Task: structure prediction
Amino acid sequence: MMGVVFTTIAGGEALPAKNDAGIIPAPAKCEMAAGGYMVAATNKICWRGTEAEEPAKFLCAGLKERIGLELAMSGLTQPHPAPAGAIVLDLAPGPFVAEAYLLKVEPAGITLRAGSAAGLFYGVQSLLQMAAAAVAAPGNPLKLPAVSIEDSPRFEWRGLMLDESRHFFGKPAVKELLDVMASLKLNRFHWHLTDESGWRIEIKKYPKLTTVGALGNWSDAGLPAQFYTQADIREIVAYAAARQIVTVPEIDMPGHATAACRAYPELSGGGTGQWNGFTFNPAREETYRFLEAVLREVTALFPGPYVHLGGDEVHYGNQCWSTDPEIVKFTQAHGLRDAAGVERYFARRMAGVINRLGKTTLGWDEIAGAGVAPAQSAVMWWRHDRRQVLTQLLEQNYRVVLCPRLPCYFDFVQDASHQQGRRWNGAFNSLDDVYQVPEAVTAGLIPAGKETNVLGVEACAWTERIQNRERLAFMIYPRLAALAESAWTPAGAKDKSGFIGRVPVFLRELDRRHIPYFDPFKPARTAEPAGPLKKAEGTANG
Ligand code: ACM
Result:
C-alpha cells in the first residue's frame, strides 16, 4: 500500500493528457476538438424544463466566482431557439441513464443535455472545472476548449463518511465539505452522529441525549455540548440535496452507544472502565422502545432512503452480556446461544424497525450473519483483513458499499513522512492507493454474476485523530479526488497519469475556497497540522 507515484512527480506538475478536458472525475467519454468557446459578458445562460433552472443558477454563480463574469439567465420554452452564443441547459427525457449528461462545447455555443436535474448538475460541475482549468492555464482565461463529453457514473453510491461524534466540526465546515463533494460528483454524505465521545443530533423525546450526551469530545471531556438541532439537520440535509447529495444518518447500536448511555444509564448494557456503557442493554424492552422513538425522529428528518444502524465492534464492550443475569435470562428465553446470537437478534430486530419506518437498513459488515433481509438492506464492507466477508455478502445477495480500511479510511496518514494518523502494520493510504479502488481491493473476491451487487465506494473520515476543520481538510484532500474518480469513472477510462495531471487544478480550486490540503507535489513543504492530544483511554474504532 505504499505510494510510489508521487515521489517521482514531486517538484513538477504533469501536463493534461490529450483527450482530457481537465475534469475530475474523468468523464466516461471525452473528445477534444479544435478551437474553443469564448465566454463573454453578453452570452446568456438559458434553460429548458423547470428542473433545469437550479443547475443553471449553479452555473451562473459558479462562473461568476471563477471568471468574474455574471451572465444573464433566461428560461426557454419550446420551440424558441436559444440566442446565438448561449450556454443552453436542456432537460430532455430520453435515452439518458440516471445522472448521465451530454456536454458539447463548440465555438458557437455550449449545449448541456440530461434526462434529470442530477445529470444537468453534473454537467455544470464539469463545465465549472473546465472554467477553473482555463483560468489556471497560461493564455486566454475565458476560452473553454471545444469538447464533446458523454458521461455517466460507474457506481450509484459515491460516498464520504464524516464522524462528528469524536470531534464536532459544525455547519460551515460540513457545508464546505458538501460543496467539494458536489464538485467531485460524490452523492452520499454518510453522517456518523453518535458514538462514544458524543451524541450530536437533537432528539426531542430524549433531551438528555444532547444536554448530557453531547458534552465533551474525544480530546476534551470538559467541553460544553456540541450538537445539531433538528433545524440544523434540516438545513444541512436540504443543502446537500440541492447538490444532489443524499444524507445518510448513522445511529450506532448496540455498541458505540457510550454517549447515549451516559445520558440514560438505565439503557446501558453494563461494563467497566473504558467500556462502561459501550453497549445498549439488549435485554430491556425499554431499549427497543427508546431506539424506535429515536429512529422515528431520525427518519422524519432525513428524507433519503437509508438509515445506518452501525452494528460494528460490539465485542469490544459486551462482556457483561454473558454474565449479567438479566441478559443471560433474555438470551435463554429467546433461544439464543450466546452474546453473538444476542447481537444478531438485536441487528435483525432493529433492521426490521428501520424497514417498517420505510427505509433501507445500512450496517457495517458485522451485521452480515444476522439474517437481515438482503432486499431491504445494504452493507458496508470495512474490514479489509476479512476478505472473504465481502465474497459472502455478495453471495448472499447483499448490496455492498466498499469502504475497506485500506485504502478508504482517511484517518490513516497519506504520506510516509506523516506522524498524525493511523497505519496498519505500517501500511497507510496514499493518493495512489485510493486511485486503485476498487480493483486492487476486490481482485478475486467478487463472485461471477454478483458484480452489480457492488453499490459503490466510500471514504471514511473517522476523527479520533482529527480535531478541527484544518486537519480534516488536510486528511481528506486530495485523496477525495482519487476516490471520486474511482467511484465515477469506468475502469477502462481511468488513467493515473492523466489524473495526476488534473490534480493541480483541483488544488487551485481548494486554494480559491481557502481550504487547506496535503500537497503531494511538494510533500516536504506541506506542514502536517498537529493532531489532537491523545485521550488517556484508547478508542474502539478498529
Ligand atoms: C468501523 O471502523 N468501526 C466501522
About this structure: The domain at 29-151 is CATH 3.30.379.10 (Chitobiase; domain 2). Residues 312-313, 364, 382, 541-542 surround acetamide (CB under 6 Å). The chain has two domains: 29-151, 157-512.
